[in-house]
């Protein structure tokens, strides 16, 4: 039993790890405007298959995207119709079982980096269309991506069976007749193919989505997928449906929020290509979700905090001209030297909205500092409607032109929260270091190996005891 | 403690030339060690240095880069300060007040980012016009390296061949980014210049236009390229330093190279440097690259004179330190009755190039004309204050001077003249090293051009812009394009380096960059320096892989 428990824990933690990867590392491969293309292609865009199943600069759906997790590097698979390297030999039933049940044609389990728990809601018709699209419209790529080889014991795929027994949904979406067709369409998209809850719903003890807090906000890797319930303080209950729609379409609303990290990629690869009808349906559904309140938010919505304050007043006139960096540099000076040239000296952003204001901003008004830290470290790179929204990273990559250290990012983050957002938020260099390395490191490998070693010793002792007893 | 280090490739200097070669060598699997005389300072520190300067120093491009005592460079806040490092003599000493910085990242920290290629004719002055020298190779040889340099640095430029320079020549690759649009002042200049047959072209520039490049953001028009791009939208070599380190390169700062040591086989064995405690260290390697700019490179070679190399290292030809070039510049500060509105976009973003070519070059120099696109508010503010105005009248005058004034410049192509010479001054710097002494005379070729050609044309252009007052600088000024001091050529008896910037005298010593340039042309020198750097890098990698 000990072994089973340890393995199950291994999976709940590895789920966290592998979940973070694909969302953060999605490629920039773009999909065409989905409204004019065949229904299967549209489902593929809605489900955002391309994001994870395409390596940077690689052929669409040929896999090979490296997802660095605290447990090792995973690679997405080739899902082109190649008979040798892809899914060319899959029947529609095989395909359906892989997408909705997380089981490959050869019977082995997928890791839940593939969001099959959400895809399990997908209708037979959508699965059929998706299958036809992959088989008929996707170009086969005759190349194998690198194989995922997680270290022991994460390499035991079959242990996913236990997790599936507990948490996999086994029926397709069931329409709720008390709601409109539009609402049902939105609910289907959000819970099924668009898999919103995969990131936005917090996870329980065994890494299952906590149904009671659906869309209430969850951590993934370096980023935090915020509360998108209809709560007026913690969620997006004060957004108009037009705003929700505009946000999904563009990833940007002046004075409210801008998409980065996983959401930036979701807008880029998926939402911007959805039909207006589907975006309206999503907005309708999201406006009706069960509100979830985060006590940490008090009575302050993250969208309405802060005001324009000049940072120049705090730094001019008392500093010498330096020929080396000041180790005691203040947050205000870091802001002026690194941020103000684009976001402006009162953090008011630019008039055209390309550079957002840092007050009245979802990220600086949040109770959780992760997204501000992650944005400074990793920047923003969102391509929508042929235009790029870009902010450089400040040291998240070792190649970034400007490298801020953990102390500097701590001071800068705290200054921005204090001056332009939610002053109560605390930030530590350790938090910055954690986010820099991709989120909390899992102690799992050590734990599970200790557990397995412990189990092995118990079994060995048992055998020894039996042997002795037998000999007696 | 003195240390002894070793690397496949040892590069002295962390400017654009050194950094491009470092990356090429690292990509080829070679180990790289770089020495930088000055400190490594973060962008935010330099940006805040600039903003903390009093307005009177805002136009002193070196002011936000205070030098360390062991790595002095020219500062110009006072005449005494200006005389404290470069020891300049000759009729046009003022035209060699070169404003480079000895900081990690080098002078690209405060370059304009302008990337005019030289033309096929610029490389054949001797055979076409009987003046200057011919390069060791033709434009066709250089072209692929220009293209590689444009993609290495991220140069934006026009896709329309009619707007490309040089005209009527094939490009092997398009610019990686579209051009930056003209501001209102530049558009006006373009229209006015066209009436005089002068074509104002959108300048190719190492500045991200509308999109990111290499993880650096698009230009957002801070109009702050001099003295620092606050957001690294403009390429500068400092942006390459983290990438070099991520690839395994090692960078030692505050390390002042003072001697290049050769052995009996005429190979370079080591470079010696001082740290800030005046302790000497040495670095050995297989290939040595001196990329410390056109003044510091010849200075270091001359400083390295010993029994084996009595005239200095790489100097059997006696050409090290000779042929010092820059584009002698004249400026016209003009006032107009109508607003022109410079200041939208980068500080420089266009130039008139067709004035640099033609048969007249038998007699006098070609030249590039340009309007500075700096916002004029600081200058206008200072000038208005000097008039003793206050209140509403002051505000009005600042507005008027910001809108209705402009600076036109003309930069003349130089000839390589052996008497324009860098030698070792008997004056010493903080470390006890000889300071560079430079004799500079722009020469009759340039003077004739100014008299017969450029100054009359400059006045015509100013008048056509509606100038009511024109003040032309009384003497030639510097353009900060340091060229010629280790001149390239095929004949080892009258040149220092070969076509790959390899020293004729020492086959494991490379001297790439501006100093190798055989002629200067009228345009900014950096893109040619970068192309030569990549050509040298190919030779270095080839030489080490062959060995």
UniProtKB/TrEMBL annotation, chain A:
Residues 1-31 form the signal peptide. InterPro entries: Cyt_c-like_dom (IPR009056), Cyt_c-like_dom_sf (IPR036909), Cytochrome_c-type_DH (IPR051459), Membr-bd_ADH_cyt_c (IPR014353). Its cofactor is heme c. It is found in: Cell membrane. One of its GO terms (cellular component) is plasma membrane. Heme c 1 binds at residues 49, 52-53. The chain crosses the membrane at residues 444-467. The keyword Transmembrane applies. Keywords: Cell membrane, Heme, Iron, Membrane, Metal-binding, Repeat, Signal, Transmembrane, Transmembrane helix. Heme c 3 binds at residues 339, 342-343. It comes from the Bacteria. Residues 35-138, 181-290, 326-420 form the Cytochrome c domain. It holds the Pfam family Cytochrom_C. Heme c 2 binds at residues 196, 199-200. GO terms for molecular function: electron transfer activity; heme binding; iron ion binding; oxidoreductase activity, acting on CH-OH group of donors. Binds 3 heme c groups covalently per subunit. This is Cytochrome c. It comes from Komagataeibacter melaceti. The lineage of its organism: Bacteria, Pseudomonadati, Pseudomonadota, Alphaproteobacteria, Acetobacterales.
UniProtKB/TrEMBL annotation, chain B:
Keywords: FAD, Flavoprotein, Oxidoreductase. One of its GO terms (molecular function) is oxidoreductase activity, acting on CH-OH group of donors. Residues 225-328 form the Glucose-methanol-choline oxidoreductase N-terminal domain. InterPro entries: FAD-dep_OxRdtase, FAD/NAD-bd_sf, GMC_OxRdtase_N, GMC_OxRtase_C, P2Ox-like. Its cofactor is FAD. Gene3D superfamilies: FAD/NAD(P)-binding domain. It comes from the Bacteria. Residues 8-105 form the FAD dependent oxidoreductase domain. Residues 472-533 form the Glucose-methanol-choline oxidoreductase C-terminal domain. PANTHER family: PYRANOSE 2-OXIDASE (PTHR42784:SF1). Belongs to the GMC oxidoreductase family. This is GMC family oxidoreductase. It comes from Komagataeibacter melaceti.
């Amino acid at each position: 039993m000990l072994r089973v428990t340890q393995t199950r824990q291994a999976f709940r933690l590895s789920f966290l790890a592998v979940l973070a990867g694909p969302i953060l590392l999605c490629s920039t491969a773009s999909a065409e405007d989905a409204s004019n293309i065949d229904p299967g292609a549209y489902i593929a865009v809605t489900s955002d298959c391309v994001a994870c199943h395409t390596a940077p600069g690689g052929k669409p759906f040929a896999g090979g995207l490296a997802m660095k997790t605290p447990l090792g590097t995973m690679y997405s698979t080739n899902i082109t119709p190649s008979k040798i390297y892809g899914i060319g030999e899959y029947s529609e039933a095989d395909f359906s079982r892989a997408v909705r049940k997380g089981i490959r044609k050869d019977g082995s389990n997928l890791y839940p980096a593939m969001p099959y728990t959400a895809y399990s809601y997908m209708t037979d018709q959508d699965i059929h269309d998706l299958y036809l699209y992959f088989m008929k419209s996707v170009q086969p790529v005759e190349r194998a991506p690198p194989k995922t080889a997680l270290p022991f014991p994460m390499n035991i795929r079959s242990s996913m069976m236990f997790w599936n027994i507990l948490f996999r949904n086994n029926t397709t979406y069931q329409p709720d007749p008390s709601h409109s067709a539009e609402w049902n369409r939105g609910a289907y998209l959000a819970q099924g193919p668009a898999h919103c809850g995969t990131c936005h719903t917090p996870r329980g003890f065994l890494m299952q989505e906590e149904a009671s807090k659906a869309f209430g906000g969850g951590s993934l890797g370096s980023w935090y997928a915020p509360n998108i319930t209809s709560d007026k303080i913690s969620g997006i209950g004060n957004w108009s449906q037009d705003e929700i729609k505009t946000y999904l379409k563009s990833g940007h609303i002046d004075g409210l929020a801008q998409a980065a990290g996983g959401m930036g990629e979701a807008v880029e690869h998926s939402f911007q290509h959805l039909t207006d009808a589907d975006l309206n349906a999503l907005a309708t559904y999201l406006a009706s979700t069960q509100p979830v309140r985060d006590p940490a938010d008090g009575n302050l919505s993250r969208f309405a905090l802060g005001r324009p304050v000049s940072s120049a007043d705090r730094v001019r006139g008392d500093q010498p001209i330096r020929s080396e960096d000041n180790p005691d540099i203040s947050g205000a000076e870091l802001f002026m030297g690194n941020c103000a040239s684009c976001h402006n000296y009162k953090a008011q952003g630019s008039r055209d909205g390309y550079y957002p204001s840092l007050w009245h901003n979802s990220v600086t008004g949040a109770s959780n500092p992760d997204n501000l830290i992650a944005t400074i470290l990793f920047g923003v790179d969102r391509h929508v409607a042929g235009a790029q929204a870009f902010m450089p990273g400040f040291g998240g990559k070792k190649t970034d032109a400007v490298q801020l250290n953990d102390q500097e990012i701590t001071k800068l983050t705290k200054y921005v929260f204090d001056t332009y957002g939610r002053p109560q938020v605390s930030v530590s260099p350790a938090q910055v270091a954690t986010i820099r390395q991709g989120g909390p490191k899992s102690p799992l490998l050590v734990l599970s190996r200790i557990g397995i070693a412990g189990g092995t010793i118990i079994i060995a002792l048992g055998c020894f005891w039996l042997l002795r007893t037998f000999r007696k | 403690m003195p240390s002894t280090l070793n690397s496949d490739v040892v590069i002295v200097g962390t400017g654009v030339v050194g950094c491009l070669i470092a990356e090429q060598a690292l990509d080829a699997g070679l180990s790289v060690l770089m020495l930088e005389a000055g400190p490594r300072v973060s962008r935010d520190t330099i940006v805040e240095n600039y903003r903390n300067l009093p307005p009177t120093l805002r136009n002193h491009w070196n002011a936000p880069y205070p030098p360390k005592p062991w790595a002095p460079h020219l500062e110009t806040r006072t005449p005494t300060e200006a005389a404290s490092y470069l020891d300049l003599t000759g009729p046009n000493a003022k035209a060699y007040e070169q404003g480079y910085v000895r900081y990690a990242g080098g002078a690209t920290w405060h370059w304009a980012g302008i990337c005019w290629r030289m033309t096929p004719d610029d490389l054949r002055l001797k055979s076409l016009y009987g003046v200057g020298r011919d390069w060791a190779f033709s434009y066709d040889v250089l072209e692929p390296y220009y293209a590689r340099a444009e993609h290495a640095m991220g140069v934006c430029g026009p896709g329309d061949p009619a707007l490309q320079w040089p005209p009527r020549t094939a490009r092997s690759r398009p610019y990686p980014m579209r051009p930056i649009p003209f501001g209102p002042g530049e558009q006006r200049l373009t229209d006015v210049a066209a009436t005089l047959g002068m074509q104002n072209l959108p300048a190719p520039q190492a500045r991200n236009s509308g999109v990111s490049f290499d993880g650096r953001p698009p230009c957002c028009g801070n109009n702050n390229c001099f003295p620092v791009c606050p957001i690294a939208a403009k390429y500068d070599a400092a942006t390459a330093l983290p990438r070099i380190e991520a690839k395994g390169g090692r960078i030692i700062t505050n390390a002042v190279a003072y001697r290049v040591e050769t052995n009996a086989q005429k190979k370079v064995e080591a470079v010696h440097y001082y740290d800030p405690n005046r302790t000497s260290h040495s670095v050995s390697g297989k290939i040595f690259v001196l990329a410390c700019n056109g003044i510091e490179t010849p200075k270091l070679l001359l400083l390295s004179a010993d029994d084996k190399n009595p005239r200095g290292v790489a100097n059997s030809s006696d050409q090290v330190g000779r042929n010092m070039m820059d584009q002698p510049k004249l400026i016209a500060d003009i006032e107009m009755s109508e607003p022109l509105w410079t200041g939208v976009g980068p500080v420089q973003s266009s130039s008139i190039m067709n004035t640099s070519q033609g048969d007249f070059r038998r007699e006098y120099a070609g030249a590039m004309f340009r309007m500075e696109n700096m916002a004029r508010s600081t200058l206008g503010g200072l000038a208005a204050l000097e008039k003793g105005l206050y209140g509403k009248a002051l505000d009005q005058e600042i507005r008027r001077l910001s809108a209705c004034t402009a600076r036109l410049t003309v930069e003349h192509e130089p000839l390589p003249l052996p008497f324009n010479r860098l030698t070792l001054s008997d004056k010493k710097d903080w470390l006890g090293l000889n300071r560079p002494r430079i004799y500079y005379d722009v020469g009759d070729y340039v003077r004739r051009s100014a008299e017969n050609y450029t100054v009359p044309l400059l006045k015509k252009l100013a008048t056509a812009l509606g100038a009511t007052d024109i003040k032309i600088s009384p003497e030639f000024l510097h353009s900060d394009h340091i060229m010629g001091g280790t001149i390239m050529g095929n004949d080892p008896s009258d040149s220092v380096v070969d076509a790959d910037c390899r020293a004729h005298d020492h086959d494991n010593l490379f001297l790439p960059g501006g100093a190798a340039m055989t002629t200067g042309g009228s345009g900014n020198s950096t893109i040619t320096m970068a192309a030569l750097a990549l050509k040298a890098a190919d030779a270095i990698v080839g030489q080490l892989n062959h060995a």
